[in-house]
Please model this.
Amino acid sequence: MIYYQVSIFSFVLLLVTDITSLIYAADQKSVDIHLEPPYQADRSSIRPSISHAQKKPKPKFAQKMHLISSCNGSYVKTNGTTCGLKEIMIGRCYEYQYMKYQLFLTNQSNVKNCTQLYQAFESAVRYKPYCNMNMSTYEKYFQLALSGVHVINRAMFWSGTYGVTHAYSADGANYITLEDTLAAAMANGLVWCGNENHTDGFDFFSCPNNCKDNRWADLAFWGLASKTFAQLAAGEIYVVLNGSHANDRPAFRNNSYFSDFELPNFRRTGEYRVTKINILLLHSPDKNVTEKCGEKSLVQLENLILAQGFQYACKDDPEELILIMCGNQWKARECQIARHVLRQAWDKKLYGTSLSKRNSHSFLLVCLTALAEIFFLVKF
Ligand code: NFD
Model:
């Protein structure tokens, strides 16, 4: 009799254990391995990356000037010119042309001389006072680096959405951003400023952030980069904007590079004219929606685009971009259901059936096995 009771008890225990493990099976599949996003948890996935030129690295001032003046191996981070500027730019140029080159350039015979390109850049800035720069300072550099390039139906612009846009453009494999062109790739994220009194001709200690008497100095490189890239874009183009900016900052704002240097420079005529501008408006997970297509600054933008004779389309949160945003912020409330649906889709891909079905099958199997065991114990 005791033996019989023990058997019943172990059956119930087995059943409860199995039900519990089956209920949590799906979740455990995804939580057993913790894949931490590569960014800080609170970083907005559509916030621009800190890696571009205008975001100056936080200065960590060196105590001794001589340590940083010549970048001679005693590297100390400053808010001056990036140590190794020349080597980085030439190295990036080689990497771009010989490793990434075949990805997207339309004219593949157009290989540039990296040393010559760097020299065009350097002669515009070395020994020159930073605040004397203007919009023509880097003309030769951009002309050399971008001659013969046209970006047809794949040019992508961004404003307030650096991270997501670049994840989506995938180094030029999907779309081509300014930063995927040779001229911008060589300089992206670097800091530099000329100094006429310094032996190196660059100031490695401190670069001015803004020149009070000459606004154009700060815009000289990225302003001309933006303008030149806009002039190379043809056919349908894409613009990724941020519809969940805090503090009522509009998705499309005056004084942005996009409004001042890109939008006014899209070609309206000729073989390489822009035909249609597609706005992709993103809303960050866990953040409030401040604007949608057809509202506020998007209306202003639509009017400007139509007035220039381009077609206009606007889409809120295309699915592929939602996936990227959720990939960066997978703990966000709006991403939870998507995670579960994706889990089911992947189970189906792996096992040919969704895990919930698999669970009910294995649940049935456990019950049958347990019943058979009881029958065996009772009988013998
Ligand atoms: P953003 P955006 N003066 O995210 N891009 O539309 C100064 F000094 O708001 C690429 O302005 O978008 N800085 C790079 C400014 C840099 C000003 C610039 C301003 N009036 C532009 N406005 C790059 N790769 O580094 C904005 N900034 C700063 C081309 C702002 O603080 C791209 O093709 C942030 O660091 C893209 O389509 C950065 O500029 C469009 O312009 C971007 O500001 C994005 O310029």
